[in-house]
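Exercise: predict the fold of this chain.
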Amino acid sequence: MPSRRILILLGAFAAGFGLLVARLAQLQIVETDEHKRRAEARRAWRETLPAPRGRILAAGGEPLARDDAAYDVLAFPDEVQDPGALAALLGEAQQDVERRLVAGMAAFLEGMSPEQIRAFREAEADEEAGTAAQANGRSKPAPRLWTRRAHPIAFDLARADVLRIAEAAERFPELSIATRRIRRVPEGALAAHLVGTVGAITAEDVKRRTGVDISAPGGWREAARVLREKGLRLSDAVGRSGLERAFEETLRGREGYRVFEKDPKGRRIRLLEEVAPTPGADLRLSLDVRLQRAAEESISGHRGAAVFLDCRTGAVLALASSPGFDPNHPKTQSGPDIPALNRAISGLYPAGSAMKVVTAAAGLRTGAIDRETSFDCQKHFPGSASFQCEGLHGPISLPEAMQRSCNIFFCHTADAIHRRRGSALPDEARAFGFGERTGIDLPGEAEGSVPSTPNPGDARNLALGQGALLVTPIQIARMIAAIANGGFLVTPRLEAGIPLSPIPIEGLEPKVLAEIRKDLELVVMESGGTAHRAYLEAKPGVNIAGKTGTAQAPGGSHAWFAGYAPAEAPRIAFAIIWENAGVHGSEAAREIFRAVGAWAAAPPTAPSSGREAPEDTPSP
């Protein structure tokens, strides 16, 4: 009989042979499809063709934002055979190239949550599975697929380097050259708050665009699926602020792709499928670049804003906010003065004496005052030390009170209005558009607030533009535009060629407007007016009407001016604020008068269309 040792050896051999047979069976029978799918995925290689984003153009056709092509070198880390030779080809240090290869997806996934990363990988697996299935004649994607991804190892190559690396493709089959779109803002900081920025999709974007509860089990994967249906991926860049965000659907194109068959060495054999990218549409604005520069110069060195509107249509001719930033350099968007804040539409301030325009309208409309009504200004309001005037004007009527910005006259006017109807002044402020968004086609606009006036003291505060009244510069520009255009509230628009009917202010009679317009002209064009000296110094070359304002605020008073030009036949309305400047509104008036002079020298012509077919863009 065989010895016990021989039996043990035979048993061990049989067991080992059995395991080998079982493993072979698993590989050849159970996992055959899996290995076929892996092979197919390696053979069918999908290259994304990014879609050019539409340009943002000023009224004269000047590009404010455009896409430029950038060329990157991508590599499959697991296929790199000689890192030293690869580094020599790229002209970089070997350790830098190796570090990027090791980093792999890390840089690509920077900032993503674990759920986003998981959803991204699952979505990419679904996409690559579908590509492999279609390329090999199957109607349904495989349920599981080993995914692999090329990672960027060199960026923004010059065209000569691209050609040199392409010639070496046979020696380096692990490499590919990808075309990437970079958003460029040729004018840098000019109109940066309008143009806005482009950046990676955030969790907030995902929820807003998909409506999916991403906190639920499988939420991120479902969100990724919905985004794919909309032509987006979690790795895409989208408009983050300004026009880039407001017109995302217009500007964003739809990416295309190419599917190649590759041999075992990674060389392309043939093109299996190609879908060309669809470029985004161009967006043309009403913005005049020359006037925009002048508006930005008027607030240079100050926190503040300046706005120019076509007072008849609401077309935005210039909209500036300071401090600014350069969208080409994201780090410039942060700082203690919050440069990313668009103060023209989001900054909230007391209106100061600019509110006296509305107070005069309320007084005339309620019959509380008329042109001849006179109040005695003795520098202090009787019975209240809180309300004072800069001058001692004596008996004074509306025209001179507007011209000299007499606080005491408008305090008496507030009392007279309040006696007739306690809500009349707040109602008038709302009628002129305060306390509501103007409807400008930019995200992030603030509403402001209009307080109630339960007692005469509150009414006086409101009449002088103080207290709880908060407005934005674009609301002030819209208010003064209504005085200039015959009593209509316009809807400010940046997109050209979008006519919106102005809204008439109910019950605002022409004789009331005529009186206020005569008085506002005195402020600027006549000696003794609070802005007359500024007008003489600026020499704008066109008659201007408007109102200065100095609003008390923590940190120093704000300097305001709101006006329109030409005074006799208005075409533009404008407003400027210097935040916490601690100077009179006439100082800011002088600078915006210079901007008006730039406009008057060559008034812009409005473009005919807001959205245009994109330029022919060569395929990447």
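Check your answer against the key: The radius of gyration is 34 Å.
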